[in-house]
Amino acid sequence: MTTAAVLAGVGATVPPRVVTNHDLAARLDTSDEWIRQRTGIAERRVVDGGLSTGDLATEAGMRALKNAGISSVDQLILATTTPDRPCPATAPTVASRMGLDTIPAFDISAVCSGFLYALQMGTASIAAGHAASVLVIGAESFSTILDPHDRTTAAIFGDGAGAMVLRRGSPDEDGAFLAFDAGSDGGLADLITVRSGGAEQRSRTTQPDPHDAFFRMEGKQVYINAVRRMTESSRAVTAKAGWAISDIDRFVGHQANKRIIHTVAEQLDVDLTRAVLNIENVGNTAAASIPLALVDSASRNEMRPGDRTVLTAFGGGATWASVAMTWPEIDTPTSPMT
Q: 3-state class of 45 per DSSP?
């Protein structure tokens, strides 16, 4: 019998602190109208008081295990660009805090595409027989790497975490992961970057530009490349799954920017009523955005068993990825906003 990874449970969380557009307008040269028109974002959640990526990942992971009705898994993969420390990886600490004993646990970094890369690795582990169950988490404290004086990035990004429990099953089950598509282009590394803090900068004798410690992106080029790659990748993964575009019931794009999601959906000819959106209340949460959007939608009972679902993302690197899956029959998850 052909083995496939099947979605068994989901969970997500966001920090309690809310930063609205009006809060940003009080200290930056911006406005609620300016931010909404360009991004579709009204507010975002940010960490403070020592709350970290590991804290968010642990809570999301625990919620996913509870939703799946289990207490342990064979492997944990954490997608993040903002680990608690440069070294060691955050995943083993998360696994320990969750009481998962000494299971294999590791981080991967593909920025906003990271969660979909992690899903591909988790499903491969199950298909190869290395694990019967995998917990995949996307978690970010992106606010910690932003320039507080940059009105563009401060308005876009937020913090949060989302998780999925994968189990061994068959491809004809609701919840099966059916196809993957992924790619990268290192020639676009400077589109989305934090220039300092790594070996490239630390090995030099010259002092870095202080601004290089913060996240930067080339907004116009990011938009162009994100639309192109997410559209192409979505078409590719849909074809690999043996579907027509018209077969897609739910379209879940990385919650980078409302305009990007709408443009990709329009280029694919996917009706916007099928697109999952929660960017208005959480902003762009990078690797956490797709699981957060899915859990938010599922918590409102908008996802139906058997829904043919396409997930797609573009992130730093540059990287991009898409996943074709069907939605399972699972318990209604707790809203990430609570």
A: strand
Host H or E run for residue 323: strand 319-326
What average pLDDT does the segment 26-41 reach?
95
Q: Provide the annotated active-site residues.
A: 112, 254, 284
Axis-axis angle for helices 32-39, 258-268 (nearest 10): 20
* CB 171 within 8 Å of CB 4: yes
3-state helix/strand/coil string of 62-88:
HHHHHHHCCCCCCEEEEECCCCCCCCC
Contacts of 328 (CB under 8 A, 6+ apart): 6, 7, 8, 173, 174, 175, 305
Mean pLDDT calculated for residue range 225-229: 98
Nearest to 148 by CA among 90, 209, 214: 214
Read off the pLDDT of residues 310-327 as tens digits, 9 standing for 90 and up: 999 999 999 999 999 999
**pTM for this model (two decimals):** 0.97
Question: Where are the alpha helices (H) located in 128-273, listed in sequence order?
Answer: 151-156, 199-202, 219-240, 258-268
Domains, the chain, ordered by start = 4-169 (3.40.47.10), 179-326 (3.40.47.10)
